[in-house]
Amino acid sequence: MTPEERDALAGEYVLGTLDAREAAALRARLASDPALREAVEAWERRLHPLAALAAPERPPPGLLNRIESTLDAARPRRRALLWPALTAASAAVAAGLALLLLIRPEPSPLMTVLLTESDQPAWLVEARGGAISLAAVNPRGIAPDRVAELWALPQGATAPTSLGLIPTEGRVTVPPGRIRPEAGMLIEITLEPPGGSPTGRPTGPILFIGRLMPARGT
Amino acid sequence: MNSLLPRVARGDRAALREIYEAQASRLFGIALAILRDRDAAADALHDAFVKVARAAGQFDPARGSAEAWLAAIVRHAALDLARARGREIPAEGLPEPAEEATQLHSLASAQDGVRLRECLATLEEKNRTEILLAFVNGLSHPQVAARLDVPLGTAKAWIRRGLLSLRECLA
């Protein structure tokens, strides 16, 4: 496909004139075709002001409740696996620790898997002895003018703490002392300008996110 | 608004409600212009907000405003519904050609709208009409062709030409 064709197709997609099959085919390519993604984003920016031509209209009452019901119903798929497992695991670990303390003083490691937006595993995260180590299992590149920054958000904290910039593949270890890993802590990787977030808080999109929990069977 | 989406990405339901309260009327209007059916537009807004809750982490303020990001999600949700219905959507409620001048006028008050309006004004009228009908009212290639009473290939070519001129003008 020539750049001209790609751009015209992206323009027609944003305009909305592609039929169902063409639109689905374009969407399927977006994930693996950064140039197409750029072209679509550029057209969204160009044409966005036209959205103001639609007259605002109050949606039917109850729609927000319906949206929240759908989200609540969808939650078990992602969360119920996590939370009951976390509680059960915590209890098991607590009970196990009492027995194991004499044998193995080292606390159980915390683990999580950071997922991509399509729920593919991207990073294995393990926290042990105060250090957090990451291993990429599904490396994917990012734009050359951006960097990936690692963050941790302890439960109850309002702002995440930066754990530094990281390569987008390979292994990374955050030494003990930056933050104390604990069960329930959110670990996330965001896309930031070169040098990292200028504000000390995440400014770019979240590439990957996961919640630390005690590993069972260790 | 830009600070709410990262909170939504972390599962903050209050942030999602705040976005809904602030944006629902604007976004429902966008879906309604495309679907021209309140129930269908409500379905589109529902689908869009479920997507927003799931995909909020992908929002990148360096690449555009939260308002534009939300509007794009709603438009594509509405277009998907329109496609699923075979776009058998009543033509009533579509703006008459005379209304377009007023429409374009309101564009000037929109943020970033002035430049786009100037560029739209440089297009041939038929190209401009098609682009507005497609973007705002979700008309497909065949629907645009039928409305302007030209063959499908002609309508497609006009739209491509219109988009190309717009891109050059906005560059």
TrEMBL record, chain A:
Alphabetically ordered keywords of this record: Cell membrane, Membrane, Transmembrane, Transmembrane helix
The protein, known as: Regulator of SigK
Species, as recorded: Sabulicella glaciei
Transmembrane segments: 81-103
Keyword Lyase: no
Record-annotated Anti-sigma K factor RskA C-terminal domain positions: 88-206
Main location as per UniProt: membrane
Membrane topology, from the record: Single-pass membrane protein
One Pfam family linked to the record: RskA_C
Compartmental location: Cell membrane; Membrane
InterPro entries referenced in this protein's UniProt entry, alphabetically: Anti-sigma-K/W_factor (IPR051474), Anti_sigma_zinc_sf (IPR041916), RskA_C (IPR018764)
UniProt superkingdom: Bacteria
UniProtKB/TrEMBL annotation, chain B:
Name of this protein: Sigma-70 family RNA polymerase sigma factor
Domain spans labelled RNA polymerase sigma-70 region: 20-87
Organism: Sabulicella glaciei
Keywords tagged on the record: Sigma factor, Transcription, Transcription regulation
Keyword Transcription regulation: yes
InterPro entries: RNA_pol_sigma-70-like, RNA_pol_sigma-70_dom, RNA_pol_sigma70_r2, RNA_pol_sigma70_r4_t2, RNA_pol_sigma_r2, RNA_pol_sigma_r3/r4-like, WH-like_DNA-bd_sf
Signal peptide span: none
Recorded family membership: Belongs to the sigma-70 factor family. ECF subfamily.
Gene3D superfamilies referenced in this protein's UniProt entry, alphabetically: 1.10.1740.10, Winged helix-like DNA-binding domain superfamily/Winged helix DNA-binding domain
Domain RNA polymerase sigma factor 70 region 4 type as annotated: residue spans: 115-165
